[in-house]
Amino acid sequence: MTENIENPRLWRMGLHITDDKLTAVSMSMVTDGSLEQRTMPLDSQLDLHHALEEAVYAAPFLLNDFGKVDIVMRTSAFTLLPPLLDEDSRSAAAALAHIADDIDQVFYDQACGATVAWALDSRVAGFLARTFRNAPVRCHISPLLDYFSRNCDSGNSGKLYVHLADGAEQADFIAFAPGGRLLCAASHTCAGDNDVLYHIMNTASVAGFDLRASDEVLLCGDNAARMRLLPLLRRYVAHALPLIFPSAAIKAGIEAFKAPFPLIILPLCE
Fold first, then answer.
1. Of 162, 224, 221, which Cα lies nearest the Cα of 195?
2. Looking at residues 8-37, what average pLDDT do you find?
3. Which of 73, 93, 130, 205 is most buried, by CB atoms within 10 Å?
4. Contacts of 244 (CB under 8 A, 6+ apart)
């Protein structure tokens, strides 16, 4: 990744943060084929707050004066709420879902006609706010909901989108009814391909899908995991397909195929 960007105000950067690594994706907003990415491991001996501080301060390119910065946090501490709840009702619902502990701050994303309530360590939230001024911070599930919802409003079949990350060790499962109504969304840690298959079948059951008939399962994310899972999935699912990679994202550069999918689709959801 370019350490010193000429005219960084013409570039945007996305940060994807998990428990064990920080991935930065930068691209010019005026030049095609410019996307670059770098992944930095986070020190497992430190809490997330201090591990992030150490990683960011060791990578000066992150502190360029980018024209736009987006931050996506991967977390299982989220739940979906109806979109029109008032603040007290949202807080009560989030508390009932037990997504936060005493040091967590609860955020609310609007995505796909729903509210995503999610929790983040308040120390991490404070560090990000101080370091990356005016950078929106979103739960990883929110851009996935936004993007998939724009692609599922046609046809007479239900659609179950499966996003695979880190070799399918992390996976997201989002189901839409025919016509595009959101039915359910969940994220799981998976011990292997059979775990992913189990969660696909379980999510399909919760959504009321018939995977032996017309309802579809579409895989995206980690390419090696996707290609490995498709033959297994096709034993049980009539319509198991790879999701077509967005052509608009390919214009940013070939590295887009390797970058975290929630970061790649963020600009497409604006």
1. 162
2. 95
3. 73
4. none
